[in-house]
Target: HTH cro/C1-type domain-containing protein
Amino acid sequence: MSNESNHAGREFSHAKFCAVTRGKLKDRGWQRDMAKAVERSPTSVCLWLAGLRVPGRSLWPAIAVYCGVEVEEITRKRRTK
Model:
């Protein structure tokens, strides 16, 4: 993963992401990596989360809201894959 965004932006996103997922994810490294991915491509991240077949997939609506991506848009894309 590249380190293109500024430090303040990464810290803010990481804090927000952890707040959204608090209590649901044990792996902090995963949270950090996902927060960086969210900065780069929120729609892709949400689509990926929407397709997970593990307990974590229940997180995708919260991540979508955080990323500013409409849940309906993600649901539509899932159906048309």
